[in-house]
Specification:
Three copies of one chain form a homotrimer. Helices cover about 55% and strands about 15% of the residues of chain A. Chain A is of the alpha/beta class and about 270 residues long.
Chain lengths: ~270, ~270, ~270
Amino acid sequence: MQQINPADVASAVYKDLLSIRNKAPLVHNITNFVVMQSTANALLALGASPIMAHAEEELSDIINIAQSLVVNIGTLDTVWINAMHKAMQLAALRKIPIILDPVGAGATKLRTKTALQLIQQVSPTVIRGNASEIASLLAVGSTKGVDSVFSSEQSVDVAARLVTAYDCVVVISGATDICLSANAKLSIKNGSALMTRITGMGCTATAFIATFCAVNPDAFVAATHAMIVNGIVGEIAASKANGPGSFQSIFYDVLYNLTEKDLLEKIDIE
Amino acid sequence: MQQINPADVASAVYKDLLSIRNKAPLVHNITNFVVMQSTANALLALGASPIMAHAEEELSDIINIAQSLVVNIGTLDTVWINAMHKAMQLAALRKIPIILDPVGAGATKLRTKTALQLIQQVSPTVIRGNASEIASLLAVGSTKGVDSVFSSEQSVDVAARLVTAYDCVVVISGATDICLSANAKLSIKNGSALMTRITGMGCTATAFIATFCAVNPDAFVAATHAMIVNGIVGEIAASKANGPGSFQSIFYDVLYNLTEKDLLEKIDIE
Amino acid sequence: MQQINPADVASAVYKDLLSIRNKAPLVHNITNFVVMQSTANALLALGASPIMAHAEEELSDIINIAQSLVVNIGTLDTVWINAMHKAMQLAALRKIPIILDPVGAGATKLRTKTALQLIQQVSPTVIRGNASEIASLLAVGSTKGVDSVFSSEQSVDVAARLVTAYDCVVVISGATDICLSANAKLSIKNGSALMTRITGMGCTATAFIATFCAVNPDAFVAATHAMIVNGIVGEIAASKANGPGSFQSIFYDVLYNLTEKDLLEKIDIE
């Protein structure tokens, strides 16, 4: 992707979006209590079929019919950690994409340790987090807190080390989203500050990545397409919203009605 | 209900709706994590008093003050399965209506088995699901998957067998909702495809049935009234919405303001 | 606060609001499944940084970086009760404000007993509930049910006894909100009946109190400021809403955009 033509990328994003709308891939989410509803609604508006399930007894049946797996550590406890390990093992056996969202890694030792143990057991296809969450996965035992701020260059360096360490795609969300694989990099400037004023937009982005990975076998390209859709929908919704409440409703409406023209007009990548 | 007069039915629905708004029946929900908030909001907009509780230690106290019970298996685990069994036993002793939503039955063995064990222990007053969920309750051990499609005739046949097997009212949701008891049948054509693009509308319908059963002792009639309200509100909301996000907000507004005139104008049953 | 000047109070409320918007205090919520998302969204719209976490292994890390703690007993079970006890002990050691919401106390023995055990172990900074919930904390062993109605005078008497018993600020929500400490009392008439038609507005008020306590060391004043913001935002949102669905979206928008002028124009206290 050294020579990026935004129009070509927008068309490729739209092709994947149509594929999602046609195939309605089943995305299995083991996610946190706060965002289950908003994640399900975002996936439905995108065109996917979300399923939330965490009982160990049914993970095998779910993974057998799912096209991708989201593991999100936002509200952990022992029951859920065990389910995450088992689901990732089953997904690896079935070779479906695994997307990890290390929510709050760095803020507590439990979250950092859990994220690391999950990654070390099974390499995720994609890891998405903010810069401090991603950085914490390289610094075992040291907590950074939730408010750590990294420069764009530092973020890329951190992501690059994680890509190498675990052979996966890494997405760092922020004012500019950075997508990195072993041999490609894309920065996405779309989005809106209003996206940080409702809960779960990061979790939604992670679930979008899982959905695009379900229809596009190139995980790096799929991750970039997901983040472009997320950023553009957020940007359009923010331009129509009076605040975070109306923003959330409009986000689903814009996503549901997203056209290739919207993508072509708004895409802002490099 | 062989000679159905839609206007008479609409008036009867409205009478029950007024009764709900006046009495605010307490509806006890043991439901899934994804839809707890949207179910509570739907019941409040309808005029009911929802309570969500699953600790075994308090089930007896809750059931003693509740007018009906919803059991929804959307996000199972052992703690919750035990609570569902205990709550249904207590509700049966107190003779309050029990409404079962077998979410995902057929998709995993755990869900099919759990739904069957619950039904075999205590016959629910009403079971509501989509066609493949309902069908799975007749075919122990064989999983159908979540995408099975049944013709309208097949759905009625499946529902009829379940009605006979467990002496309960059965509601199959779909483009046309089918309500069936041992000696009555009603088809409801109201609704909108947009209802499938937000999570939990089926769970909401189940909770509506529980609410109407709390004010109308005829479970079949109560179930039809609930599904008519659900379908008409969805239809009106969809006509005003730009997509699934605005649809959800408008659904609650329309429900809260629903008039007899709305019911009379929109009702589409046979 | 014997001589109350509403304009002075409105300005003091606004000063705290700006402080919240500037500092984005981290508020740790151990709350119920129904309202996790709406509480997080309300805190984000207010300007706070919400975190939801209940695993005992990470409570210490979370409390160490949090500026206040919310404990809400809306959907109890053993795992969560243990987490609540531990979190309150840790918060007391770190001397951060603890706000308790005894949801449903009085309706079940488990809830009444749990609320009392929590309070007797560690005195909360503020307790907020409706009149029957608050009253149940004085009447061990007798359940009042969820629909008990108290006169305004009875509510004040009940609150006064709780203030004395546990040396804390007590807020009783209702058509008029009553805030009481050992030496001060304020009644807040702002609000709207529509606030009772969506789930979790009481839980939101509790989380607002925790946020204001994070920036204002006077717990009584902080609690009154939180309830004034809650009431005024609800009142403005209700005036623009078509029903409970649009009310919820508009609530977040109004809160996010709340100005000193709004507070000055609407404040209705005595």
